[in-house]
Amino acid sequence: MSTLAAARVAPQREPKRLFEITDHMVATLRRGGADLSQLGVSAPPEEDPIALWEDVSVPQAHARTLAWTNSMKAADHDDYLKWRLSDLDDYQRPQALNGWLDSLVEAKRKKARPDTMHFIVSGNIGSGKTTAVSALGNEASSRGLLVRFVQHATYLTWRRPDGGPDDMSRYQVRKRHVEDPDLLILDELCGEMDGVQTEFVRRETTDLVGSRLASGRPTLFSTNLRRDGIKAVLGERLLSRIEDRAYLAKVVGPDRRTPRKPLEW
User: Fold this and answer.
1) pTM higher than 0.85 for the full model?
2) Which of 45, 92, 159, 174 is deepest in the core (most CB within 10 A)?
3) Sheet holding 118-123, edge to edge
4) Do residues 212 and 56 make contact, with C-beta atoms less than 8 angstroms apart?
5) How far apart are CA 209 and CA 221, in angstroms?
6) In this structure, what is the dihedral angle of CA atoms 60, 64, 65, 66, given to the nearest 10 degrees?
7) Predicted confidence band of residue 220 (pLDDT cuts 50, 70, 90)
């Protein structure tokens, strides 16, 4: 073989071993928020100021933050991702929310069941309930909890045959909201269901509440209905399960949606 021909021959490369994890693959998975600890890859030096308990790696924290962000975007609540508990007014009960969050993080650290399993935020339309619960979700996600946000009516719609988003099955919808989250924020409990009494609504809500209670996973509810309104939809038995070991925080404030200057019609 001539010298010129030899120069055009690519040097022989050592073949990669089957299932070998390359640096390029690790970088790609990390950008996507994958939990690399499941592949036996050690976490990189922590760069972000994320307060985590010992068994949560930085990649896991980023994946959980992404899950929270995606659930808020699915609810068209991107604007609420900016809020923190320190931004809330006193009537939105930031101290009570922060105290409950501390108890959830401590229970998760100890692998124990929280003393207060349910937190109910009630108030009139436009009083700032969704802002308050979103602020709690933002804080909880930043502290390493897996948090998801969904409106009650949306969850029920997704649980109907062929009702799930992105071709998700009914099982996948349930797993995402019932089995996986450390904290589920169920917004607008019984919203747009005043007086509705169907077997489907009660069965699905009973499954959601009961399953999360049995597994020791807390749930935050927000609603603009009074107790009698929720009772009319869910029934006394299910409502009592929600009220059991629950903390009620009433948000009583001005309607934030009212125009500053009255409109002339």
Assistant:
1) no
2) 92
3) 147-151, 183-187, 219-223, 118-123, 246-251
4) no
5) 11
6) 100
7) very high
